[in-house]
């Protein structure tokens, strides 16, 4: 499978402004990127501005026509699963079937403890597994506790669900759903996960499911002709998510990278 290319916007700090993410979405679609994912954090709990992902993605959906839209990732243990299912279904209908749901345990304890919730890892893992069953069931049209979601999403049998995390438990969890979404870069923008490491984790997932599944990786490249991209494609990554965040550089540099386009478009007339 040829690797596709999207962007992942860290919607914190200056990029928490939703209208700016809408501008990024328009630019990304024009430049030929396949998808746009956003972070899902309550970063204001630890002193950093942050944007609500579902409101932001709804605005991007109205401003674009082809971009697939997703979260990287939603910490399901701190959300009500039925509410998440309703939000995903609504966004999928609004976007005419362009939604991908990325989920994970949640990586910042303060986003739980600041509001009186437990950040204990085993508790979060239990909530994640239970929440996935509820969200997946409702989005697929199943009755959960005697309740059926309506209206259902456009995508059938349901929108794809990707699971984040790097532990063996996270990889086994990803094997039970539609794919794995992983963080490949550090805050500085340097790649922290080598292609051979990604390939080993993919092999582990394949030991627990059928071969066909999505592997999304956030990372930073120098441009559409960066030879590093081919290394991750060969490792088995199916969706490269170019990471757009404030620590990488000023907004004009980030927009320039978006305008340069993905590898499939680079060097061609647009």
- Low-pLDDT sequence parts: 266-270
Shape: globular
First-last Cα distance: 24 Å
| Most strands sheet | 8 strands, parallel, barrel
Helical content (DSSP H or I, runs of 4+): 25-40%
Helix/strand-derived class? alpha/beta
In spatial order, strands of the major sheet run 1-2-3-5-6-7-8-9
Oligomer: single chain
Blueprint of the fold:
Layout: E1 4-9, H1 18-31, E2 35-38, H2 53-63, E3 68-71, E4 74-75, H3 81-94, E5 99-104, H4 110-113, H5 121-139, E6 161-164, H6 168-175, E7 179-183, H7 195-206, E8 214-219, H8 228-235, E9 239-244, H9 251-260
Parallel strand pairs: 1-2, 1-9, 2-3, 3-5, 4-5, 5-6, 6-7, 7-8, 8-9
Looking at this protein, list some descriptive labels:
globular; disordered C terminus; 270 residues; single chain
Structural notes for this entry:
By secondary structure, this protein is α/β, with parallel strands linked by helices. The chain is built from 9 helices and 9 strands. The chain has helices at residues 18-31, 53-63, 81-94, 110-113, 121-139, 168-175, 195-206, 228-235, 251-260; strands spanning 4-9, 35-38, 68-71, 74-75, 99-104, 161-164, 179-183, 214-219, 239-244. Strands 1-2-3-5-6-7-8-9 form an 8-stranded parallel barrel, surrounded by 5 helices. Helix 1 packs across helix 2.
């Amino acid at each position: 499978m040829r690797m596709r290319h999207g962007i992942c916007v860290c919607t914190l700090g200056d990029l928490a402004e939703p209208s700016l993410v809408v501008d990024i979405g328009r630019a990304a679609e024009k430049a030929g990127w396949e998808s746009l994912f956003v972070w899902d954090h309550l970063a204001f709990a630890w002193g950093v501005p942050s944007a609500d992902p579902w409101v932001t993605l709804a605005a991007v959906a109205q401003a674009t026509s082809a971009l697939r839209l997703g979260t990287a990732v939603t910490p399901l243990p701190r959300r009500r699963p039925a509410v998440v299912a309703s939000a995903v279904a609504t966004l999928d209908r609004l976007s005419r079937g362009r939604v991908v749901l990325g989920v994970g345990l949640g990586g910042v304890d303060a986003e739980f403890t600041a509001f009186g919730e437990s950040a204990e890892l085993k508790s979060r893992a239990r909530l994640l597994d239970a929440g996935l069953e509820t969200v997946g069931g409702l989005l697929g049209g199943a009755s959960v506790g005697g309740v059926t979601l309506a209206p259902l999403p456009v995508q059938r049998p349901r929108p794809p669900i990707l699971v984040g995390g790097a532990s063996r438990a996270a990889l086994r969890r990803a094997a039970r759903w539609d794919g794995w979404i992983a963080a490949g870069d550090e805050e500085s923008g340097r790649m922290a996960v080598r292609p051979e490491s990604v390939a080993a984790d993919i092999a582990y997932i394949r030991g627990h499911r059928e071969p066909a599944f999505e592997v999304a990786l956030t990372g930073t490249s120098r441009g559409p002709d960066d030879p590093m991209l081919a290394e991750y494609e060969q490792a088995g990554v199916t969706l490269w998510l170019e990471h757009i965040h404030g620590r990488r550089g000023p907004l004009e540099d980030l927009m320039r990278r978006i305008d340069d386009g993905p590898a499939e478009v680079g060097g061609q007339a647009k």
